[in-house]
TrEMBL record:
It catalyses: a 5,6-dihydrouridine in tRNA + NAD(+) = a uridine in tRNA + NADH + H(+); a 5,6-dihydrouridine in tRNA + NADP(+) = a uridine in tRNA + NADPH + H(+). It comes from Candidatus Gallibacteroides avistercoris. PROSITE patterns: UPF0034. FMN binds at Q71, K140, H170, G227, R228. Keywords: Flavoprotein, FMN, NADP, Nucleotide-binding, Oxidoreductase, RNA-binding, tRNA processing, tRNA-binding. The gene is dusB. This is tRNA-dihydrouridine synthase. It comes from the Bacteria. Its EC number is 1.3.1.-.
Amino acid sequence: MKIGPIELGDRPVLLAPMEDVTDQPFRILCKEFGADMVYTEFVSSDALVRSVESTRRKLSVSEAERPVAIQIYGRDTEAMVEAARICESASPDILDLNFGCPVKKVAGKGAGAGMLRDVPKLLEITREVVKAVRIPVTVKTRLGWDSDNRIIVSLAEQLQDCGIAALTIHGRTRSQMYTGQADWALIGEVKNNPRMTIPIIGNGDVTSAEIAREKFDRYGVDAIMVGRASIGRPWIFGEIKQFLQTGETASPLSVRDKFLVLRRQIRESIQRIDERRGILHIRRHLAMTPLFKGIPNFRETRIAMLRAETETGLLEILDEIEQKYGPFLASEA
């Protein structure tokens, strides 16, 4: 599969853009485990144009994570065009337009998935951004605003006509947020539309290697994107790639290695920001990692882990968990 000149190989697996998750250290880690392309956190076009420093820092990309896409969102055409040009100067491989974020502070203000309520404006922004930059422009969106407005089949054709190089579809409406099941049938309908010639990337509920292969086989998508299932589990990319290539389901990592990955995430999160904010950032990964799933009588230890305020204290708790529950985790793996 290719996006513009970017070759991603057969059946690529991509890391989805996620706010407060896909910072540079996490992107590099997922790339090391086999992610074929990674995306930055959401970048606000308005904040970028205003030169907000915390937003500009999100544009930092490294050679270790290529190919990498910067994703921007906004509802004003001029701001999105200017932000696109700023992003291009940061030398990403691809620029992605976010028309899918469902959270109230984004969609409620008309950006992200909120653009699905103003398709003419969405298309105007897309056309103008495509004209403004030389790198490939892609779009990530949802099926529509709600169950009565699942417009993705016609919208996909319109977006292609705007000149985008690929389209990622999350198989839910904005109203669904992250509830219910992703509807891959509509994603497949877009992919199998004879008018569509650009790559179609499917997203939603890809939580295992077996599910990843089933989505490729059943719906014919060109690539899949993994989002929430990678939080606290960057090794999922290794599991998926191994299964796609060999049909083997064995985990590529031992329990010991998974603990080493979590420790690395803690250290790099703290190094990137500072101890207090780095620990706050990494708590989401620790809370969502499936590594601790099924451990008996784990509630108090879990609470202590998520309340730890120092690097030393947090690493000591991880050491205790590994020593106490390591044999159980190994037997469950």
